[in-house]
Inverse folding.
């Protein structure tokens, strides 16, 4: 019981630290992620030893590995930075099951394995937070955004999506509940998708790609341009994040470089965990 409460407390406090750091600096210090991994493993080992049951370690190990696979997949596709990646892993270890002590206070919908519920809620909160933050950037950089948005109209795609939307809405009248509702929802998603793509691309190019002096480059920064020296490519923009060695190379050939700024995603982790603990699977409560 005490181990469970301690794990929960540490996880939430560390997530708050990480959230504040991500919002302020767009970085999550390694000590937060690594210490959370070490503390969670140590406490679970202690709990297993006290109860003399090694089987208690199976679920944390399985979900820790599963979360690591998800995290590194997001990292290598350049969706997340290193901080986000390392922070997700201990969440799989800590929340391999719902904390029983919280059932005294909440009545969450736990109709799936708890780690799966966390991932579902993370996808939802992450998408919502990213969209809200993108709107904030678009408003903050209104002139640059509108100029870029005019270049990404995707007219043919929008016309196609409109036709498909009309077809699906008309088709929905031939079905009964809940199939008709699902078709209508699908049609709305198809309708707004090209507009969202135009919006997100415009925000990225107008608000998130900046010229940065080379002396302000830090490890993990994402390049938005290839770096050449004597017409020879020395660092690709597809690089997963700058290293100290690469930064030193850039300093020898450039004074400024285009860098893609990251979006604070860790707040979504905290929100997703809180929603999961309080409400559970609120999207599919059946």
């Amino acid at each position: 019981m005490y181990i469970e409460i301690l794990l929960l407390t540490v996880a939430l406090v560390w997530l708050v630290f990480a959230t504040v750091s991500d919002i302020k600096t767009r970085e999550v210090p390694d000590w937060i992620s690594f210490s959370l991994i070490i503390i969670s493993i140590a406490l679970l080992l202690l709990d297993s030893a006290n109860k003399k049951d090694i089987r208690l370690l199976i679920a944390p190990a399985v979900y820790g590995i599963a979360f690591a696979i998800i995290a590194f997949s997001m990292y290598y596709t350049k969706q997340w930075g290193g901080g986000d990646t390392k922070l997700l892993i201990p969440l799989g270890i800590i929340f391999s099951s719902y904390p029983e002590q919280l059932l005294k206070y909440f009545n969450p919908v736990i109709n799936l394995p708890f780690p799966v519920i966390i991932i579902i809620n993370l996808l939802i909160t992450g998408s919502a937070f990213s969209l809200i933050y993108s709107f904030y950037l678009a408003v903050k950089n209104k002139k640059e955004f509108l100029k870029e948005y005019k270049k990404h109209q995707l007219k043919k795609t929008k016309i196609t999506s409109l036709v498909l939307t009309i077809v699906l809405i008309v088709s929905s009248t031939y079905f009964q509940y809940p199939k008709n509702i699902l078709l209508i929802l699908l049609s709305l998603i198809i309708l707004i998708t090209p507009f969202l793509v135009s919006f997100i691309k415009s925000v990225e190019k107008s608000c998130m790609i900046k010229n940065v002096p080379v002396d302000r480059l830090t490890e993990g920064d994402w390049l938005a341009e290839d770096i050449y020296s004597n017409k020879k490519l020395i660092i690709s923009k597809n690089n997963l994040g700058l290293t100290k060695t690469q930064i030193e190379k850039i300093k020898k050939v450039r004074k400024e470089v285009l860098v893609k700024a990251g979006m604070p995603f860790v707040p979504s982790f905290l929100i997703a965990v809180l929603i999961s603990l309080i409400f559970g699977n609120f999207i599919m409560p059946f």
Notes: The two ends are 29 Å apart (CA to CA). Strands lie at 209-213, 222-223, 227-229, 232-235, 256-260. The chain has a mean pLDDT of 90. The longest helix spans residues 179-207.
